[in-house]
Structures are given as structure tokens and as C-alpha cells.
Design a protein that fits this description.
The chain is 51% helix and 0% strand. It has 82 residues and is mainly alpha-helical.
Length: 82
């Protein structure tokens, strides 16, 4: 039962535009960071799995080079997480 409560813990998407978070060292391109961003990022919608922006927009939001984003996204896809 405790695992179910953890599964639906609320995360505010406003954290991505918080000044304190933006001053921290950014995450390097990697599958874990991308997956977390896909779940909680500012482009998420109330429709699960729908993110109405291009990969280039997500990469720019994370300040990742195109190649780094592509490699991270390939990891996420390979694991069936997107």
C-alpha cells in the first residue's frame, strides 16, 4: 500500500523555472535526467505521455546539445520508457 502512495506523489512543474534550481549545475545529457524531465517537465500535459513540443525544444530547455539529447532519448526508448 505504501508503494501506491509513493507512485502518485505530486511534483510541481514550476520547479523547472525556479530561480534556485536554474542556478544549480545542470544535469549532463543522460537517460535518467531525460526520463525525469519527461515525467515532470514544464511541457507535460494532463494527458499522460503527451508532450506537445519537439525534441529540439526539450533539448533546448535542458541546455543539451542535439547529439546528447539524441543519445539520452535512445536510452529511454531502448528501455521502453517513452
Amino acid at each position: 500500500m505504501a508503494a501506491d502512495k509513493e507512485r502518485y506523489r505530486r511534483v510541481s512543474v514550476r520547479m523547472w523555472v525556479d530561480d534556485a534550481l536554474r542556478r544549480l549545475t545542470p544535469s549532463p545529457p543522460c537517460g535518467q535526467s531525460l526520463w525525469f524531465h519527461l515525467l515532470t517537465g514544464p511541457h507535460t500535459t494532463n494527458v499522460p505521455g503527451v508532450i506537445p513540443v519537439s525534441p529540439a525544444v526539450i533539448g533546448a530547455t535542458l541546455k543539451w546539445p542535439a547529439k546528447g539529447f539524441a543519445e539520452a532519448f535512445a536510452e529511454v526508448l531502448r528501455e521502453g520508457m517513452a
